[in-house]
């Protein structure tokens, strides 16, 4: 990564660094973009967000930690600009308010209130108790793989595992799960939504979520929606109906997309590092450490939502002014040579691994523990069942561009005869 010409901190956009122009469609599909983000020095640089607005791009581990832990930085931009940004990207006006009432866009007291209520329901004990259920889902899906000549590990394993587990956790009825997976894929394109697809997906998911909430209010079950409804009914700091609906939608979306990417990228990366795969196959107890290293190395979540300064703040020697936006790149922070020894090397025995793959601070991913459980179960079960699994095509055919999710992962379950 090359440093842009020096500017006075906080004095406007100037010449924007093209390698950080998220508004350029070529950036999304450029396989070299990731290399520019992951390598070289890590100054705070100027760039553009997907809507064309200016951002400070932060890639160093120390600076990313500073941004994620800085209380004067907010998730929502000042004034009405966030609402206008969503409208400009094609999000219909009638659903903007609900779409804007999630933990991802809350700050301060509101964020603390909702996060505290959700944390009650998403306890570590509940997540750990899901392990046998995740194992059963994985084994059932692996049974289905055995009948396929060249299964696609995304369509046939990573995708269904992620959506089944999160839907079982929430209590989404089986009849809706395939539809929910399709909606989730559409919502994953929120940076550049297709209005013809995006609006029906959000409206459909919101409608079904409200129906699910009403059903659990009338007849509670042992699922997360029922527990959230109970929190909604009993706590003096109760969730609003919009907050409850948006929260359920975000949990499905985030839980599905992150785990899907972690499993797919994890399998692909291990197959390209046979020495590390052999270590894992010979010692499954390395599973949790291997998944943590894969989160660091593959970055299933590349970057966070933007943060906005409410007062002047120094980030990496740059004075960010009130109202200016900051984009942190988790993937680059997790390859910082000042923190990680040989950062470009996959090492599933790595002991010192302070990765930021799930963020940190107030907005640390609520579902991180579940994602790690799913990743470990998925990988150890897959290679335990099919130890000779191999890619069915050349890696160059499926190596994903940096900001795009991997779309296919064809494999052979046994060696070619």
Structural account:
InterPro entries: Cyt_P450, Cyt_P450_B, Cyt_P450_CS, Cyt_P450_sf. Pfam families: p450. Belongs to the cytochrome P450 family. This is Cytochrome P450. The protein has 417 residues and is α+β, with helices and mostly antiparallel strands. The protein has one domain (18-412): Cytochrome p450. Helix content is 50%, strand content 7%. The chain is built from 17 helices and 9 strands. Strands 1-2-7-4-3 form a 5-stranded mixed sheet, with helices on one face. Strands 5-6 form a two-stranded antiparallel ribbon. Strand 5 (313-315) and strand 6 form a beta hairpin. Helix 8 packs parallel to helix 17 (368-385), helix 9 packs across helix 10 and helix 15 crosses helix 17. The longest helix is centred in the middle third of the chain and has 31 residues, at 241-271. The radius of gyration is 21 Å and the shape is globular. 41% of the residues are buried.
Order of strands in the sheet with the most strands?
A: 1-2-7-4-3
CATH class: Mainly Alpha
Continuous helix count: 17
Mean pLDDT: 83
Over the alpha carbons, how many angstroms does the gyration radius reach? 21 Å
- Number of distinct beta strands: 9
Q: CATH superfamily membership, which one?
A: Cytochrome P450
CATH architecture: Orthogonal Bundle
SSE ordering: HHEEHEHHHHHHHHHHHHEEEEHHEE
* Overall number of structural domains: 1
Question: How big a fraction of the residues is strand?
Answer: 5-15%
Tell me, briefly, the overall form. globular
Class computed from helices, strands and strand pairing: alpha+beta
Q: Pick out the low-confidence regions.
A: 1-18
Distance N terminus to C terminus?
45 Å
Helix content: 40-55%
Biggest sheet architecture:
5 strands, mixed
């Amino acid at each position: 990564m090359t440093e842009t010409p020096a500017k006075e901190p906080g004095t406007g956009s100037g010449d924007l660094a093209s390698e950080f122009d998220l508004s350029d469609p070529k950036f999304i599909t450029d396989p070299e973009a990731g290399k520019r983000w992951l390598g070289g020095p890590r100054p705070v640089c100027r760039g553009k967000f997907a809507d064309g607005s200016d951002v400070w791009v932060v890639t160093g581990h120390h600076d990313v930690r500073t941004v994620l832990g800085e209380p004067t930085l907010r998730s929502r931009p000042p004034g009405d600009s966030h609402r206008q940004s969503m409208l400009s990207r094609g999000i219909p006006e009638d659903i903007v308010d609900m779409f804007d009432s999630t933990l991802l866009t809350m700050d301060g007291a509101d964020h603390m209130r909702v996060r505290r209520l959700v944390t009650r329901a998403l306890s570590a004990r509940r997540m750990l108790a899901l392990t046998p259920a995740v194992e059963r889902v994985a084994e059932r899906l692996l049974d289905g793989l055995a009948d396929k000549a060249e299964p696609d590990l995304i369509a046939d394993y990573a995708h269904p595992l992620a959506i089944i587990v999160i839907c079982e956790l929430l209590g989404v009825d089986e009849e809706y799960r395939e539809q929910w997976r399709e909606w989730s894929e559409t919502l994953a394109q929120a940076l550049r939504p297709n209005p013809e697809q995006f609006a029906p997906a959000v409206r459909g998911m919101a409608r079904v979520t409200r129906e699910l909430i009403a059903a659990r209010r009338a007849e509670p079950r042992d699922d997360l929606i029922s527990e959230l409804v109970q929190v909604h009914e009993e706590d003096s700091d109760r969730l609003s109906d919009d907050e409850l609906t948006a929260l359920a939608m975000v949990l499905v979306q985030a839980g599905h997309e992150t785990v899907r990417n972690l499993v797919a990228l994890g399998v692909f990366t291990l197959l390209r590092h046979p020495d590390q795969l052999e270590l894992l196959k010979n010692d499954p107890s390395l599973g949790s450490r291997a998944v943590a290293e894969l989160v660091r190395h593959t970055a299933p979540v590349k970057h966070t939502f933007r943060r906005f300064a409410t007062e002047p703040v120094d980030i990496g020697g740059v004075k960010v002014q009130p109202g200016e936006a900051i984009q942190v790149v988790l993937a680059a922070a997790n390859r910082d040579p000042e923190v990680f020894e040989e950062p470009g090397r996959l090492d599933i025995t790595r002991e010192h691994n302070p990765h930021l793959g799930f963020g940190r601070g107030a907005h640390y991913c609520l579902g991180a523990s579940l994602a790690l459980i799913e990743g470990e179960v998925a990988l150890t079960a897959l290679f335990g069942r099919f130890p000779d699994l191999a890619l069915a095509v050349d890696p160059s055919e499926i190596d994903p561009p940096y900001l795009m999710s991997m779309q296919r992962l064809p494999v052979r379950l046994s060696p070619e005869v």
